[in-house]
Amino acid sequence: MGLEMLNPAGMKKFTGDEEDANLFFINIDARLIAAGIDTAAMDQPPSAASTTPPYTTDDGLLNPHHPQVDASILVLLLSVLGGHPLQLAVTGNTKTSGCFALHRLKERYERSATEHARRFKKHF
C-alpha cells in the first residue's frame, strides 16, 4: 500500500468523451483506493492535519490533503488527461492540488457519465 501504486499503467487518456467518463472515474477511484488513499476525505475541505503526517489518525489511510499525497494525485491525473479535462484540472488550480483537480472533473463529468450509463441501459 502506498503512493507507488498510483501509476497510469493500462489507462487510456481521458479527453472528455461522455461515454468514457464513468470508466475513467471508476479507474481513478480504484487506483486511489489501491494506494490506500482515504477517498472519503477528498470531499471534505483540508484541515490543519494536512501538514502533519500523511496518514489519517483513525484508520491509517493516506490523507489526500497531505502535500505529498495531493501532489501524487495530481501527477496521476496529468498523466491520464488530455484536451478539455486537462484544461479543467490545471486552469485556476493555483495550489496545484490533485484533490481540487479531481473535484473539478467530477463536477463537470460525473453527472453526464451517470446520464450516459442510464441511457445506455435503457437502450438495451
Question: What's the layout of helices and strands?
Answer:
Elements: H1 18-34, H2 67-80, H3 83-90, H4 98-123
Helix pairs in contact: 1-4, 2-4, 3-4
Provide a descriptive summary of the structure in words.
The chain is built from four helices and no strands. The protein starts with 17 loop residues before the first helix and ends with a helix.
Feature tags:
single chain; 124 residues; mainly alpha; 52% helix
Short description:
This protein is an all-alpha fold and 124 residues long.
Largest sheet: none
User: What is the tally of helical segments?
Assistant: 4
Q: Helix coverage percent of residues?
A: 40-55%
Q: Which value, in Å, is the CA radius of gyration?
A: 15 Å
What is the overall pLDDT average?
84
